[in-house]
Amino acid sequence: MIQRKSLLIQIKALPFWQGHPAPTARRTLQGRSQIMDRTMSMTRLFSAAPLSSLEDEVREALDDAIDSLPLARLHRDPLDVEPMIDALLPRPARLLRDQTRFSVEEAPVKTRDLLSRPRTRDGVRVVLRTPFEGDGRFLDLTAAPGLDSLPEGRVDGQTLVLSLATLAQDPARIAAEVGRLLDEVEILLTHQAHTVEGWRGSLTQAATSAILDRRERVEAAEATALALEAAGFRRTSD
């Protein structure tokens, strides 16, 4: 069996880790407590709410924007709604994977024995901190229906924090597991980006229809005002 200290040294020497802060082993009880506290703060990503809830927010904001359009813009032909939609569509999150930083620690890993009884064994935990661009809400919203296995992590500002606990003692295998974890997150984010781009067509139709409807209401109100003036009534100044 590979000694834990030797394992951490081997992980640090892998090409995947080069250029990053050196991983460290924490053997004290205090260190183990900190590891467990950090793990407890992790939650399942892509599961807090459906992605459609964000589309609903965009549609509500679009209605508000159209209701507040100046009259001159309202009567502009042809209607140009794309800039409005571009401004309202949230920017999907994208990992800046090459800026990932990490730490490697000894940590208790929860597992089960042959009889499926829970137990805790000594293992290794890799904590990743990966910056991202775009709207961090995407990391909490569903990426695709019916997914049972989702990564765990948390969003810290514009940084995604991921944790990987493993009993593996082969450094190359641990590095491969880390790579697969980041791949999984990127696949889910890409799926979300395609979904959001797919909203554009229906949003364009909805915006065009709403502008035309408001134009008709404004024109009808103006026609009513002219008729009242013709009947001898005066408009108020407000």
Quickly describe the structure.
With 238 residues, this protein is an alpha+beta fold. It has helices spanning 4-13, 29-40, 52-67, 71-74, 82-88, 171-230, and strands at residues 43-44, 94-95, 101-112, 118-133, 152-156, 159-166. It is rod-shaped.
What does this protein look like?
The protein has 238 residues and is α+β, with helices and mostly antiparallel strands. Strands 1, 2, 3, 4, 5 and 6 form a 6-stranded antiparallel β-sheet that branches. The longest helix has 60 residues, at 171-230. It has helices at residues 4-13, 29-40, 52-67, 71-74, 82-88, 171-230, and strands at 43-44, 94-95, 101-112, 118-133, 152-156, 159-166. It contains 6 helices and 6 strands. Helix 1 crosses helix 6 (171-230) and helix 3 (52-67) packs parallel to helix 6 (171-230).
- Percentage of residues assigned to helices: 40-55%
End-to-end separation: 85 Å
Shape category? rod-shaped
Average per-residue pLDDT, rounded, comes to 82
Percent range for β-strand residues: 15-25%
Q: How large is the radius of gyration?
A: 27 Å
Number of helices: 6
Helix/strand class: alpha+beta
Descriptive tags:
alpha+beta, six-stranded antiparallel beta sheet, 6 helices
What is the fold's blueprint, element by element?
Layout: H1 4-13, H2 29-40, E1 43-44, H3 52-67, H4 71-74, H5 82-88, E2 94-95, E3 101-112, E4 118-133, E5 152-156, E6 159-166, H6 171-230
Helix pairs in contact: 1-6, 3-6
